[in-house]
Amino acid sequence: MPRSSSTHSDDAEKFLLAAKRAEIQALERLVGSCELVTTVSDLVHQLQRERGISNIYLVSTGFRFSAQRQEQIQNGRDSEEVFRRLLHNRYLRSGRDESPRDMRLLNSIAYSLHGLDELANLRLHVDAFEVSALESTDAYCRLIAGLLSVVFEAADVADDPEVTRLLVALFNFMQAKEFAGQERAWGAIGFAGCRFDKKLHGRLAQLQDCQRGSLELFVEFSGEAEQTRWQTIEGGEASRDLQRLRQVIAGLKEGEPIASEISEVWYDLATARIDAMHCLEDAMAARLLQVSRKRVAEAQSELGYHYAQLQRMKSTEWTRPPALAVLFDPEVPGLYGSAPSTAVPPLPGKNLAHSLYDLIRSQVAHIHRVSEELEKTRRALTERKLVERAKGILMRSLRLSEEEAYRSMQTRAMEMNLKLADVAEKILQIGGRDGSAGGGTSGSVRPAAETLAEEIR
Amino acid sequence: MPRSSSTHSDDAEKFLLAAKRAEIQALERLVGSCELVTTVSDLVHQLQRERGISNIYLVSTGFRFSAQRQEQIQNGRDSEEVFRRLLHNRYLRSGRDESPRDMRLLNSIAYSLHGLDELANLRLHVDAFEVSALESTDAYCRLIAGLLSVVFEAADVADDPEVTRLLVALFNFMQAKEFAGQERAWGAIGFAGCRFDKKLHGRLAQLQDCQRGSLELFVEFSGEAEQTRWQTIEGGEASRDLQRLRQVIAGLKEGEPIASEISEVWYDLATARIDAMHCLEDAMAARLLQVSRKRVAEAQSELGYHYAQLQRMKSTEWTRPPALAVLFDPEVPGLYGSAPSTAVPPLPGKNLAHSLYDLIRSQVAHIHRVSEELEKTRRALTERKLVERAKGILMRSLRLSEEEAYRSMQTRAMEMNLKLADVAEKILQIGGRDGSAGGGTSGSVRPAAETLAEEIR
């Protein structure tokens, strides 16, 4: 059985190391994204507070929250300053290599910065009552949506499975928190305006549904520690009081007047919960940084190990054991239909760490492991999104509650012994408007609702 | 309705440009990968010829193809030289920025280079008849498989939809050509050994199936021009003669002797077809380069346009029309449930190319378009892979022919009004061994074959 008698190729060696360095660079960029996400999370939090305060300031034509607003604006400015400085140091200082290669992330940053440039302008409009509470809230929401898209893009380009899971969990938690913030805003508008009409009731209910949806995703992708902390928050007093107040609101009749003072109670309760969410957000961000930095350290020590091994192989005292030659490795698939296992007898005492080939092989295995995990996480996320969107279609076209929509899909999946995602994709195909998710084969021409009803009957 | 009175932020501008530059860099790396693929395709072709020639040389214990072999070895050396030089210039020269950031591509290159280092060694073994035709063929196949993985990785990291489609088509065509080469090798072994046993018949049939499978994928992802050229090849004389010879072989009884001279006829016919395939390969590679370079040029001119626009906005004569402020753009989703369309009347004569915001917006749209297309291509590829693998499971566990397996899946899909891919995924879940593709909900404990048979009954 032939053994390799060829000397190591410098090139093969160089590419082995280049590959590991490429991984390190990618992970360093990832650390950068995680730091970015951390600062974004804080900035979003400050803007959410400013949004809520500005509302009450506007609808009370300046009688309420005037001082708090000035204070909050300053907090916002400080947080924005931190965000901008980070961006400068990380991405705009020339010759930095860990700047992201990702167009989408950079463009979402450009978008957010442009929004921030208009913030001063927005504040002036609020000062002078030149915008309605609704316009102002809308504007803040757009700014925050832009910042959240930065977090989303960061999660989308993450190359590490665990970090990806954490980023997905964090993004959805931030999303939920933003929905909570918008609920607070609508509530404030209702209270301060002393009336809750049907439309407003509907919006509040939907925003509560949206929170549930995002929180489900957060729970699915977050770790146990985070989940426990979240349960503590939802079980806490503020959340329970808020829940009661939510019911009070839901119970109000069309346009039934309500003491505007309660608006501050509402604002404080919602705020207490949102602040608690922000603490958890910070904890997640911290863990994110820790994990991503750990990854870099691991990859660097692996690179060090590679170097050491290669040096040892070159050293004069190094007596090279007969290495298994790649071209004759029975484990490597070769000619189709040849029976490799018999072609070569297993080597006695074959030492896996003693040849360049062994290093390459171990790196191949490493890459394979990582890609598989990442693939799994991504699939889980895609499927979850499909289900969410299908749920939405059912709720709209069949007027089902979120729970009903979900249950009907579940039942259908069990009946047909399909995955929930398969049923969801089917529904999206029929529902049409989201065909992009399906690539629809169903050429049904009947009204979608009809077909849908049948599909999940 | 408020308008932005804020001056442009340099930062937002810088990130807008950084995003476009990031796209250009990514596309330049892509051009690099395409050049790499081109040289790999040539090297693989040379090694395939050397493999076939070496076989006949070995089984005829040096009586046949001795001269051709030396000549072919030289061709191989030349082609390897080109490959190595390209790698050096592109990836190992320091300070080059378009070197790929991709660990997997680099590692597959390291793997291939290591294999090439052992090639000299393999050739010596062949010279001295120290390896059997089977061992030698196996070795060449491993080397080629490594090189093909480089093409696969290149296709996997392509960020452009059209280039991705071309790379996928090319990779599958190269794969098919390699199966054709292995068929040629097994045939040569059979002829030169003057006998075709049952096993050999089976392998040849399977290798022909594998070719069909890869070629289907090639057809699905290639352009019309390539498809037409391919039809011409398969309709051509060499292919038809080869088909006849295939039937002659299939007709041979167990161990029925056959004149070894035919081996050269077989070799020549198979070679003629494979060479024709290689020409088409070259054409595809050329188009690949052309398309990827076009992309870079396009992105660069877009960057130039951005610069020009930004300059114009800064110029003193530039009277800035009231730009739509991002925070007040009704098209940007803001507060959930607010009615944006009514919130702001459409601006009279709003000029879309007249503000930084417009540039950012157009880039957002561009990114969205590209991502969507890419997503579609990737999905098509994944689904195609699922179907291929499910087909394999059915063929193995239910002993169906490829056609039968495919048809049964199709029927099932139509019955259940599902996509073929959904049925495939279902089969993979049941078939178990490929659960990775499903995430299996089916907890069936009965023998897979039974369940499968039922599934597609």
From TrEMBL, chains A, B:
Region (Disordered): 433-457
Coiled coil: none
Residues of the ANTAR domain: 367-428
Pfam families: ANTAR, NIT
SMART domains per UniProt: ANTAR
SUPFAM superfamilies recorded: CheY-like (SSF52172)
PROSITE patterns in the cross-refs: ANTAR
Compositional bias segments (type: Gly residues): 433-442
GO molecular function, one term: RNA binding
Protein name: Nitrate- and nitrite sensing domain-containing protein
Provenance organism: Microbulbifer pacificus
